TrEMBL record:
Gene Ontology biological process terms in this record: cell wall mannoprotein biosynthetic process; protein N-linked glycosylation; protein O-linked glycosylation
Record organism: Epichloe festucae (strain Fl1)
Residue segments, region Disordered: 46-100
Domain of life of the native organism: Eukaryota
Coiled coil ranges: none
Leader peptide range in chain numbering: none
Basic and acidic residues compositional bias, start-end: 66-82
Gene3D superfamilies: Spore Coat Polysaccharide Biosynthesis Protein SpsA, Chain A
Listed PANTHER family: ALPHA-1,2 MANNOSYLTRANSFERASE KTR1
Pfam families to which the protein is assigned, alphabetical: Glyco_transf_15
Lineage of producing organism: Eukaryota, Fungi, Dikarya, Ascomycota, Pezizomycotina
Tagged with keyword Transmembrane: yes
Name the record gives this protein: Alpha-1,2-mannosyltransferase ktr1
Gene Ontology terms: cellular component: Golgi apparatus; membrane
Transmembrane residue ranges: 7-25
Length: 436
């Protein structure tokens, strides 16, 4: 009997205890974890993570509601925006022999930051291809530098694009929609003439020859990306396209190389343009040179783009799907005069002028030789060409994963050998073995 009572008491105690546990759990309130400022609802910018990429939240839980189209409030001075230290205190180490060369590449990179951003023009459908590019740029460089990334589109970016890209970029991300007048036919273009050209190029199977959007893209990259409101806050840009690869660790900040070296334009791959797409580009260029002799640099690189002293174009150009460059140069009167002169001539639509020859001719004529830089250390792929640094020692110390046999630099269709010659540069050891 006593044992029976004790059992009932035990049951009652357990029931009361269970009730209280249940009550406590069901009525417990927890504070929401706050997201980094600017990420999610109402933020003018979308931002995830801070220096070092810590403090991440799940981006999927907070859809980004509003792309920013307004410029960010920042001074437009030529001073590096994020500079925290005197440049002289943190030397720019570009080779293992330089003081400050970091072998381990761990943690946030010391030293100043330039007023610079990555920039990508993309469609929503490019999301997974640009995701691959970003991952590589972050792993090989930006996870230690946390530079911003501006995305531009002729249509609004969707939530998937913004969520995926924001989750991958270690700096701030900004999304801009391109104004109609930067992505349409100017009123002086004869639509019938342009249409006939496209039909003719389609018949002749010229790549992208029948595409209207490709032409808008080339005109936009030639004349407008650098003056989008979001880009006005920056001084340097690094252009990244979908589906590119980076094969080596980057031990130094290329934006700093540009800034400290007085560079305005840079490249990793160069080649000959498809002549059928730019039949009258050089005629237009010559007209510009005649009208604006004041814009032609004294110590220019005419020898890189012309083999006959400027009579004809040899079709050499820097491949513009990779570029690190000065936005202030592109926004200069010289460059704008050049673009507007070409734009008036209509070749973006009456032919299929690409932004690569346009940028390259501009750099070749209006910059001094010393202002154009070849980034040998940035190993890069965009279908179908690879830049893989020449020299086993370089590739090993940069932990490259490219196949040196695929290096395009010294092959017959590349113009990089000519660039070295024009600039009196010594080609790296072993270049002759990679000619074919
Ligand atoms: N928003 C937008 N971006 C575009 C459009 N067409 C091309 N792009 C972007 O412009 C850049 C160049 O276009 P691509 O199609 O890569 O041109 P390409 O490099 O000459 O050719 P591929 O060999 O096909 O890569 C890429 O970053 C594209 O994502 C378009 O119609 N709208
Ligand atoms: Mg491309």
């Amino acid at each position: 009997m006593v044992a029976g009572h004790a059992r009932y008491v035990r049951y009652i105690v357990i029931a009361v205890f269970t009730f209280f546990v249940f009550y406590f759990v069901s009525s417990f309130k927890y504070d929401k974890v706050s997201l980094p400022s600017g990420f999610g609802a109402g933020g003018a910018t979308t931002q995830l993570g801070s220096a070092g990429g810590n403090g991440r939240s799940e981006p999927q839980q907070q859809p980004i509601e509003k792309p920013i189209e307004e410029p960010i409030e920042e001074p437009k001075s030529s001073e590096p925006k994020k500079s925290t230290q005197n440049l002289a205190n943190t030397p720019l180490a570009m080779t293992p022999n330089d003081p400050g060369w970091d072998t381990d590449l761990v943690g946030t990179a010391p030293g100043p930051r330039m007023n610079a951003t990555f920039v990508t023009l993309a469609r929503n459908s490019d999301v997974w291809d640009i995701a691959r590019s970003i991952r590589q740029v972050e792993d090989r460089f930006n996870k230690r530098y946390n530079y911003d990334w501006v995305f531009l589109n002729n249509e609004p970016f969707d939530d998937t694009f913004k969520t995926v890209t924001t989750s991958l970029v270690s700096g701030k991300t900004h999304y801009g929609e391109i104004a109609k007048e930067h992505w349409s036919f100017p009123e002086w273009i004869d639509q019938d003439k342009a249409k006939k050209v496209r039909e003719d190029m389609a018949e002749r199977k010229i790549i992208y020859g029948d595409s209207v959007s490709y032409r808008h893209m080339c005109r936009f990259e030639s004349g407008f990306f650098f003056r989008q409101p979001l880009m006005m806050n920056y001084e340097y840009y690094w252009r990244v396209e979908p589906s590119i690869e980076l094969f080596c660790d980057l031990h130094y900040d290329p934006f700093r190389v540009m800034h400290e070296g007085g560079k305005k334009y840079s490249f990793v791959l160069s080649l000959y343009e498809y002549a059928e797409t730019i039949k009258t580009l050089w005629d237009s260029t010559k007209k510009f040179m005649k009208n604006h002799p004041e814009h032609i640099a004294e110590n220019n690189s005419l020898g890189f783009i012309s083999d006959d002293g400027g009579e004809t174009y040899n079709n050499c150009h820097f491949w513009s799907n990779f570029e690190v460059g000065s936005l202030n140069w592109l926004r200069s009167k010289a460059y704008i005069d050049f673009f507007e002169s070409l734009d008036q001539d209509g070749g973006f639509f009456y032919e299929r002028w690409g932004d690569a020859p346009v940028h390259s001719i501009a750099a070749g004529l209006m910059l001094n030789k010393s202002e154009i830089h070849f980034f040998n250390d940035i190993a890069y792929y965009h279908v179908p060409f690879t830049h893989c640094p020449t020299g086993e020692e370089t590739r090993t110390r940069l932990r490259c994963h490219c196949n040196p046999k695929e290096n395009f630099d010294w092959k017959g269709y590349s113009c990089t050998s000519k660039f070295f010659d024009v600039n009196g540069m010594t080609k790296p050891e072993g270049w002759e073995n990679q000619k074919d």
